[in-house]
Structure formats: C-alpha cells, structure tokens
Specification:
single chain, Pnp Oxidase, Chain A, alpha+beta
Length: about 180
C-alpha cells in the first residue's frame, strides 16, 4: 500500500473516532442487535375454533398492509415536501396448499358460504407453523374467517402435472384481522 493511501486511511479512522466522540458514542457500550435465525416451516396446521381443519405444506399472504397516502406539505422553511401517511388497513387473504386428502371439512365449510350462510360460518382460529421436529415455531391468530375460494388441480391423464403427479388443493381463507402471536 502506498504511503498516501495509508495516510488517508489514518485520517478516515481518526474522523470516525472524532464523529463517535462528538455523538457521545462509546464502543464499550455498543451491543449489536441479536441476530435471529430464520424459521424453517415444515408444515402448517389450520385450527378453526379448536378443531384442526387440515395440514398444509405451503402458506402465503399471511399479514396486513396499509395503503399509503401521499400529502404535499410545506415545511417551516417554506420548502415543499411529500409526507407519507398510513391509509386504509388491508388484511391479506391467507392462501394454503396441500396434496388432496379425503378430509372434506374445508369443502363443507366452503359449501356453507356458497349456500349464502356467510355470517354464520365466520370463525376465529389460528395458523400454526411447525418445524421438521413437529415443534410449533410460529402462530398467527385470525378473526372472522371464511373460505372464499377452494380449488383442486388434479393430475391429468397424461401425467404432465407440474406438481410431479400429486393433485393439489388450494384454499383461500378471508380474514378480518390477523396477528402474529408467536
């Protein structure tokens, strides 16, 4: 390394030290945030009012979001800027997938919605994620859920199903509120 580069690095290091001292920052008190290992989901259980309605290998859209409202404002200095505010809260529909089973609970629940009994079929429940050792690693509780869609993609006779020959059942659960509790 050249003498000029070494001198510049020395000044950069000195500058960082001065910045830390000015900001009142001491490295002795510095504690980095604890890193969390990502959870690995092996399968998911859908528990609707204490009765497990099914086990699934895939779960999507678990959460919520706000629409973003942009408002133009003028600062005290007379500068125009854009302030972003939370708008309407939107709760995502939960999408679950699994291989088709002989359990008809979800189909019966969906049929009640088709028959027009939406208010009477709304249920509270949980979506539970398990790891490979079947230990619960995450849980989301939801309110006033109902199955808004259920679709089966059976294996075709040619065997050209992209899922490798397994018929897949997909159910969409519409919820009014969802919260991660574990």
């Amino acid at each position: 390394m050249s003498k000029k580069i070494k001198r510049n690095l020395k000044y950069v290091g000195f500058g960082v030290l001065i910045f830390a001292l000015v900001m009142g920052f001491t490295f002795a008190n510095y504690k980095p945030a604890k890193a969390a290992d990502p959870l690995t989901g092996f399968h998911y259980a859908l528990d609707v009012q204490g009765v497990v309605k099914g086990y699934f290998t895939e779960a999507y859209n678990i959460g919520s979001e706000h629409e973003v409202i942009e408002r133009r404002v003028v600062t005290k200095q007379g500068k125009e800027t854009v302030m972003k505010l939370p708008g309407r809260l939107k709760i995502s529909d939960i999408i679950l997938k699994r291989g088709i089973t002989n359990n008809m609970d979800l189909w019966k629940w969906r049929q009640e919605v088709v028959d027009g009994k939406v208010d009477s079929v709304r249920r509270d429940g949980s979506l539970i994620m398990f790891d490979k050792s079947l230990k619960e690693v995450a849980r989301w509780n939801f309110l006033r859920a109902w199955p808004s869609k259920i679709i089966c993609n059976p294996v075709d006779a040619s065997g050209m199903n992209p899922s490798g020959g397994m018929a897949i059942e997909s159910v969409t659960i519409s919820v009014e509120l969802i919260q991660r509790v574990k």
